[in-house]
Amino acid sequence: MNGTVTIGGGDSQVTAQLTFPPGGGGPGVIVIHDWFGLLPHIGGRCQDLADAGFVALAVDLYDGRTTTDTAQAKAWRDGLSGDRVMRQLRAAVAHLRDHAAVTPDRVGLLGYSMGGSLALQMATQVDLEAVVAYYAILSDDQFAPLRGPAMVHLAEHDDWESSDAPQKFFAAVANAGGSVEHPAHRGTEHSFANADVPATYAAQADHDAWAATVDFLGRHLR
């Protein structure tokens, strides 16, 4: 049954929304929200994943808090403990790996912005069958070889430390023997796939990115 679950214990405890496909089981996908929190579009995407045959687990790193105000979002993001978040995500991966409905035992990560960065960081630490990140890469000081295939959806216009940062990341992944697909999304800005932020939302780009995401997850998780 779909609903809220509590994962982990002690300092690694986190609540999450669990959504099952109509058939009851399938490979698992952990969804990590952006700095605005677990807004309604995340729940919609979890249902889309379930409809596509995946067990979706959306972690709530803000304990129920959501916003569309960037200043508040930044404050909440900056207040997170990176070490604790990594423990929470490890607990989420373990939860899906052990869940009876996750068949075959294959798990991927899907993250948006802050969540995309966290998904990529987690992919440098644990073995994963797939990772998808929206408008996120790893910086030079974060980089380590990815332990699973990746897809990255980047906006055409974004605020990187340097304009060549994405290409440097893609080259570093390839040089380390990894695989990263990066479809182009012309005319888009950061958060183009967040339907709860109308100022930057781009419906066609979101649709196209989602179709590519579901295809990628299907190829690597089934």
**Domains counted in the coordinates: how many?**
1
Largest sheet: 9 strands, mixed
Give the overall average pLDDT: 96
- Structural class call reads alpha/beta
Helix content: 25-40%
Strand content: 25-35%
Task: Please identify the top-level CATH class.
Answer: Alpha Beta
Please render the helix and strand layout as text.
Elements: E1 3-7, E2 14-19, E3 26-32, H1 40-51, E4 55-60, H2 70-78, H3 82-98, E5 102-112, H4 114-123, E6 130-134, E7 150-157, H5 165-175, E8 180-181, E9 184-189, H6 203-221
Parallel strand pairs: 3-4, 3-5, 5-6, 6-7, 7-8, 7-9
Antiparallel strand pairs: 1-2, 2-4
Structure, explained:
The protein has 222 residues and is of the alpha/beta class. It has a single domain (3-221), classed as Rossmann fold (3-Layer(aba) Sandwich), CATH 3.40.50.1820. Helix content is 35%, strand content 25%. It has helices at residues 40-51, 70-78, 82-98, 114-123, 165-175, 203-221; strands at residues 3-7, 14-19, 26-32, 55-60, 102-112, 130-134, 150-157, 180-181, 184-189. Strands 1, 2, 3, 4, 5, 6, 7, 8 and 9 form a nine-stranded mixed beta sheet that branches. The longest helix is centred in the C-terminal third of the chain and has 19 residues, at 203-221. The model has no long low-confidence stretch (mean pLDDT 96).
Entry keywords:
222 residues, alpha/beta, Rossmann fold, 9 strands, 35% helix, 25% strand
Give a brief outline of the structure.
The protein is 35% helix and 25% strand. It is built from six helices and nine strands; from the N terminus they run βββαβααβαββαββα. The longest helix has 19 residues, at 203-221.
